[in-house]
Structures are given as structure tokens and as C-alpha cells.
Amino acid sequence: MSYNPPVSEQRFVLDHVVGINELTAHERYAAATSDMVDAILEGAGAFAAGEYAPLNRAGDEIGARWADGKVTMPPGFREAYQAFVEGGWGTISAPEAYGGQGLPNVLGTVIMEDLGTANMGFSLINMLTPAAIESLIAAGTDAQRDTYLGKLITGEWNGTMNLTEPQAGSDVGALRTTATPTGDGLYRIKGTKIFITFGEHDLTDNIVHLVLARTPGAPAGTRGISLFIVPKVRADGTHNDVRCVSIEHKMGIHASPTCVLSYGDNDDCLGELIGPEFGGMAAMFVMMNNARLNVGLQGIQIAERATQQAVGYAMERIQSARAGGATRDPVAIIEHPDVRRMLLRMKALTQGARALIYYAFGQLDRAHLGDADAQDRVDLLTPLAKAWGTDVGCEVASLGVQVHGGMGFIEETGAAQHYRDIRIAPIYEGTNGIQAADLVGRKLGLGGGAPLAALIADMRAEAQDAGLRALIDDVEAVAAHLAGSGPDDRLAGSYPFLTMLSVAVGGWLMERQGRIAAGVDGDPAFLAMKRAAADYFVGQVVPEAAGLKASALAGAELLYSVDAAAFAA
Amino acid sequence: MSYNPPVSEQRFVLDHVVGINELTAHERYAAATSDMVDAILEGAGAFAAGEYAPLNRAGDEIGARWADGKVTMPPGFREAYQAFVEGGWGTISAPEAYGGQGLPNVLGTVIMEDLGTANMGFSLINMLTPAAIESLIAAGTDAQRDTYLGKLITGEWNGTMNLTEPQAGSDVGALRTTATPTGDGLYRIKGTKIFITFGEHDLTDNIVHLVLARTPGAPAGTRGISLFIVPKVRADGTHNDVRCVSIEHKMGIHASPTCVLSYGDNDDCLGELIGPEFGGMAAMFVMMNNARLNVGLQGIQIAERATQQAVGYAMERIQSARAGGATRDPVAIIEHPDVRRMLLRMKALTQGARALIYYAFGQLDRAHLGDADAQDRVDLLTPLAKAWGTDVGCEVASLGVQVHGGMGFIEETGAAQHYRDIRIAPIYEGTNGIQAADLVGRKLGLGGGAPLAALIADMRAEAQDAGLRALIDDVEAVAAHLAGSGPDDRLAGSYPFLTMLSVAVGGWLMERQGRIAAGVDGDPAFLAMKRAAADYFVGQVVPEAAGLKASALAGAELLYSVDAAAFAA
Q1: What UniProt keywords are attached to this protein's entry (chains A, B) (predicted)?
Q2: Are residue B134 and residue B230 in the same domain, yes or no?
């Protein structure tokens, strides 16, 4: 099943949710004319469909292979990656000072969406490099920026994030990798990192590892962590002492090598500090927040691909007459009400999640232009984008399998790959439970609660539907309740609250789009579907989320009414 | 992770949901003393844990292999299957006239649950044979019964169901396989069947295929279908002309060979008619209804196994201090509120689905004792058991992956296998959408609506919680609305209605169990967990289901407000 880039949808969301014209009215983004935006959308879609999508099944079936410390990508990947570099697709929203085109981040988002929709596993190499770029821009020295930024931006080199160790997953502060000063400004890195995406491969000549480690005498926990840059190939052309000792056998994203990296086995792994000593956690949050929005975007990627595939199958597969129909002739299954319900749900959830995530990226662009309120809003929306976006991806991929019936369970069809691939997204870059904890722990109280209050006010000023308005009221009431609760009660309600708030935001932005679609000129089929998806979201998804209120308010007492051991009884 | 049979839970549900004592009070089941019930529960659990569970990972990793028409099972499967036969585990609830022990069906259910929890893919051979047994008991001649029943009951031979053809999936009436009389009472079978579970393997000396086919001049559609019995090895010891031409490469249940069977390539495939000519659909429903309840049971199997595995991991994995806790020492993740929320949800959903499905099997036993109302209730509950039971299985398996964090996505952990294995269950034996159509199309109107009215009356007579009572009211109102609607509107609301009704039944039976658990003697840990699971189900799962009311009532207008082609816009 080929990939058909949703250009009309992307442009509509940029226009009516992101407000791209407001962004491009700013002198910094003046180069992004409306024609250029169209050209990027068309071009990125065509590139992804032409170069990345055809490799998606091979990425799954052959996958990245490890032998003797080397990782070999499936045939065709090196050429496609080279085409990405040569096409300049990595440069769109990077700073002009380092060879970027300086266009709004949200346009980089569209490109990332296209790449991941075409080939999620492969696109992780494109997704993680920007985290390294952000870290260097935020905290690197001029020399570090000069050395690395240009090649990271084009993609000639890729970046990796090295946080996790076997005993230090969600609890990053438990990491043990050490960094010992050599005396000449460098550090010897020693330790083992796991779950390192594209930590080794044969697509680029160099790999730039960003590594969290502890300097001698550093305080325990997260306060004692520093960030280091460790290139696979050093400036003098010698190889650093870092080795890929294995890759994981995973349920999905087989095209993405998930590496165990061993640093300093021979005490010859040299790295440089980025930013101040003990500045590792701050730097990590710079990397993570970027990555979290992008993981949320992966939810849309697979949702879009799974929907396209299911629609294609449902239009071709002929089975059974329509119940109550005029004839007994079998019809395409898209004509059956419950199949159509599944497809409309897929469309509505995908569009709702896209609206929320594009909106968040649009706020990030405003923040980069100096709007502090926009930064607060991004901070508030990041856990929603990551957690709800990936939950939507999983649900839609599952519906995609279901629409295929028995063929959905057969690997050759491809629907199963989407279901397997996306299941990592609620887990990595902070599990969705960690996102929910971030929402109720850090984000609810941000600025004394002002960012949430402002968001609720914006939603309330525009929302029309009584059910949507009731959900916004519920969200406000639950937030007030959780803000006044102790940590256990707050965390017990965190996940259902995150879903409620996400659906409220999605409903707000979908209702707006439906209203606009009723009054603008454009492709009648696209506009009709936008209206139907908006009606479904507001009329049917929103009431479901209201059903989570009891859970969000339930508190922790029941959870601890039994001993841990009783769970095994 | 080994399998720990949930004997206390199984016995509690048999006592307080099934009413096993009422069944065994009947003279036909007098042999099933309370001690014998305990012995079967303990013995079946130990057998499944000892023989089937250790093969579960190999079943996934090696899987069934096809070569030259033969299917080879992984090492150890033949010995474990032989132990099943020799242990007499297939005979428990089979009729005494054919070597069975004549005990209540619901005890066979417990055994089936244990086998499938231990090894879902493998256990399909045990699950499908009873469908063949039921068909022969319902419609076979004395000679057919004498030839086949004994060996099917012990499991020396296994049975298969041959319905599906490439163009005939949900629409069974579209099948093309032919059966031509030979003149001496036999039929020559010719055609291709797909998705045939254990259609070929090396575990037994013979395989008994039940095949739907058309006789010459048969009417089109389902009215022209007849059922045939086609043994792999004929009575004279010669092989029938049936060949396994391939097996599918599936997302899960790799231990279960899913075969393409070609009948009569050399015009030498001989079968016998079972039951009357054109009696195929009636016979199919006998097979299917049995199988549908058993597929629902698979939902519990994986839910149970995934829960056990997640609880085990969460008790061992140490990560992060408890938020707001007295110390900064890291704790087992089961101590964190959101992990505990996931685990309690897994327990509550698993127990709720087990209650509904065991209850349905208990009603089947009453029906076999001549209770017509009980048969109506089984008919009503069968689509709920199949669809909601398997939806629960998928959700709980997904939560199990999530509890494992990054390790959940790594295949060696085993959590991913459960997630992949169970995804077939909402699809086969009639997709869950077909179940929802069956519920609103056939079952709502059954007996003028009396079976549903009786179920609602029973629930209302016992339910205490205001939210649960409100859901029962909603279910009644939605049912009345759907019963008065046209087919499109009815089908558009069918799936959310099915979930609402299922959760109402689950809530009714869980609330009852929670009440009983508060007043009986027993293992304090088990009883405390039962009460907590009941409170979670009634207090938090029930309100979610109420949130589906808008969808159930929405009708089909929105679904058809756009052309099919617009879904691809």
C-alpha cells in the first residue's frame, strides 16, 4: 500500500489551527511565503512517498542486522538516506547561521510527519538528530557548534540521546556512567547505555552521541549529571572507544537499530562537556521536550498510514450485501455501517491528534519569537501531545487491523506492522504514565496555574457544543481538585485527567475546523470529510472522555487498600 | 515467567457467579462433587502450568513450520499433547456414552482457560475439537458418532472447522467448494479453504475436517450449504485427497498453524454428509456458538497471563522513589500510583470478563438440562462474551506491555507475545463487528425482546451502586431506541451498545462478588483483591461505559454524510 501525503489536511491545519500566516508575517520567517509552504508540503510528501515508503516492508522484514559490532541496514536505506541529505530536507527549520533555512519549526514538523508516515522505523534517525542540534544550540560552545551543527543539520552525521542504563530508566538520576577529566579539557567516558536509537548503523560516516554521565564526586541523583558529546569518529579521524555490543529484538520498528553501547572498554573514549558541569538534567529536558512532541507526532504518522491502508482495503474488499439494502448483491465493506464507523473514528482521532500536535509546534514557533505565554502553553501541551497522540496512534492502528478482518493478522498485508511499530510510542521518551505525572506534578502548578487557566479560557471563548463545553467544565473542576490533592491522589487521577484534557483540546480545535470547513472554498470531498470528522469527534469522542471523570477524581485510597502482594494472590 | 493457575478465583466464580452447586445438585451432574471440582481445578492448572506453559516462548519463536505439505510443530509439543490425551483432560465434560465423564461444561471451560493461559497458540487444537464433537452429537448418524466421537473426545484425533474461502469470509454464503455425490452415499469434495486452524500438523494420527460445501444445484447463498466430514485418513487407512498448500505468516499465535487446505486436487477427496442436505448453516451455528464463547475465553486467558506477568515485573523492578514519600529510596514500581492503577485495572477487567463468560457457560449447562430461558440467555450473552471478552484481552495485554516500560517492547520479555497473540481474537470466529451486528440484529429481538428484558430485570433486582443502576437504565433505553430503528442506525450504534451492555453485566456480577467477598471466609489477600477489583470495576469502568451512550444513539446519518470516496480525500 503506497503512501498518499495528506497535503490538503496539512495545509488546512497550518492555516486554521497553527495560524501559519501569523508566523510568516514575522520578519524572521518572511522567507516562508504561502507558495513556499505549499512547495515544502508537496515536495516533502513526494520525497517521503517516493524514497522512504517503498522501504517500509523491507525495514520490517529484514530490519537492521548486527554482527561483530557493526549494524547493517536493509538494502536501499543508504541510498534513501543520502537522498534525504542531498535534498536538504533536514535544513528547513534549522538556523541560517549553520546552514539551515530558518523557516518555522512547524514546517519541519510536516516533513517529519511525512517521513514517519512513510517509514516510522527509518525516520527515527531523522527524528533524534534535532534533539542533538537543540542541545548544541542551547549549551554548546562556538567550537562545538562549528564542529557539529552543520553536519547534523544536513544529516551527514546523525545524533543520538544516551540516557538509559539497565538500572536507570524513568529514574535517570540512577545512572552510573562516569566522565573523568583528562586534564586537557576532555573527559574519559565509561559505562553502558541501553535503548540507544540508531546508536550504530551504516548510513553516515559519523555518529554524534550525546551522553549523560557523572563526573568524579558529583552529587547523587539528577543533580550530579552532566552532558557530554562523544563522536564515533574523533576530529583526528581515529575511532572513539565506543562499541555497539548488541541490538534488541523488538516487537516493531525493526528498521531502527536499538543499541546497547559500551563506552570506554579500553579507557579510550573521549568526550567533551556540553554546557556547565551538572547541567545534564536541564540539557536533557531540552532534548526530551523536542523529542516528546515528535513522539506524539509518531502517533499521527501511524494513524494516518493505518487509516489510508484501511480505507483502501475497505473500498476494494467486497463482502456481504448491505443490511436492509435494496439488493442482495455484496458491496465494498466501506458501505457497511460498522466498518464506516471504524473508518470515521480513525479519521476523527487522527485529525484531532494532528490538530493538537501541530498547534503545540505552532506555539513553539511563537515561543522562539519571544512569546513567553506560548512557551508556557507548549510546556503544558507537551505531555498531552506525547501521551494522547501515541494512544491515538495505537487505537487507530488497532482499528486498521480490525477493518482488514483476517487479513489484518497476516503480516504480508502490512496492517499488523503498523500495530506493532506504534506500540513503542507510549513507552519511549518517558512513558505515558510519566507524561501524566509531569502534567499533574509540574504543569498544573506552572505559573500558579495560569497556563491551564488561559487554555481553558481560550477553549471556552470558542467552543459551541454543549457536550464540549461540559467537558471543559469537567476538566477545570478535575484540575482544581487534583491541584488541591496530595501526590498519591493526584497521580492516581493523572492518566484519565490527561486524556480528558487532551480530548477537550482536540474537540476545541476540531469544532473550529468543522465550522471553517463549512464556510470556505476548497475540495468538496476534503471539506465534507473534515466536517464529518469534526462532528464525530465533538459528538462521540468528547462524551467518552467525560466518562473518565469518575476515574480522574477517584483518588488513591482504593489502589492502596490492598497490599502489593495481594496482586499476586 | 511461569503460569500460576488462578484456582481461588476460578472456584470463587464457579461458586458465586455460575452457581456450581445448583448444577451439581442435578442428578446428571451428581458425580461432580465439590471435592472433584477442586481436584479438577488443581489438576488442570498444574497440568497446564507444567506441560503447556513451558512451551509458550518456543511456540512463538520457532512456531509451526511448513514444508512440502507437512507441518512440523516445535520440539516438545508432541509430548505435551500426548500428555493431554493420556491425562484425559479432553473427556471431562464430554458425554459418557462416548467415553466422556459427563461433568458440567463449565468445568471443561476451566480446563480450556488453563490450557490457553499457559499457551494460547497451542491450545487452539484443544479449543476447536469440541466444535466438531458438538456437530456430530447434534447431527451425526450413529455410525459417524461411533467412528469419530471417541477419538475426538480423548483428543487422539483433532477436529477442524472449514468455513472460510478467499471470497467468503464473514459472508459464508459466498463459498464455492463443491460436494458431488459418488452414488454410494459419499461425496467428492473439491475446493480451497483458508484460515484453517490446525488443519495440518504432526500431533495426531488423524485430523477430522468439518467442511462446508455446496451440492450440485444447491440454492445460492447460505441456504444452499451443507456440512461434510472429511477425515485426513480414511477408514481403510488410505489418505484422503486433502493437502496443506501453505500456512500463514501471522502477527501472533505462531504455535497454531493457520492452513490453506486444498481439497480434491486429484478428484479423490471423499466426505460424508452430516445432518440433512442444506443443513450446513444450522450446523455451522452449532460449531460457531461453542467456538465464540471459547474465543471470548481466550480474552481472559491472555488477560490473566499478561496480568500475572506485569504484577511479577512490577514487584521486582525497582525504579524511582515514591512521590511525596518519606524517603528518596527507589521502590518497586508497583508502589507508584499510576502503575498500581494499571495493575488494578488489569485485575478488574480480567475478573469482570471472566465473570461474564463463566456465567454464560453456566447458563449453557442449564440449557443442556432443559432450561429454555437459560438457552436464550446464552444466545444473548454469546456476542458479548466473544467481543467484549476479546476487547478486554487486548486492552489488558497492552497495559501489560506498558507496565514493563521499555522491556515490554523487547520480545524476550514475553509481554509483547501476549499483545500480538491476542490481537487475532477480536477477528476470528466472526469479527467483533459481526458480533455487534448479531446482538442488535438477532438477539435484541429474540423472543420479542424477552431475554434482554429478563436479563435487565435480574441485574436491576440486585445492583446497588447508583452508577451501575444508571448504566442499566441507559442500556434499556438504548436497546429500546435501537429496536425501533432501521438497520443502518441500529448497526451504527451496535458496537458501543455491545460494550455498554457487557460492562453492565460485568458490573452486576463484579458488584455481587465484591459484596460476597466482604462476608465470607477465605484467603484474606484474595478476598481483599476481589473487593478492590469489584470497587474499581463498578466505580470506574462502569462510568466509562456510560460515556458511550452518545455513540450508541448517534445513528448512521453522519456516517453516510460523506461519499465512500471522500474517506480517501
Answers
A1: FAD, Flavoprotein, Oxidoreductase
A2: no
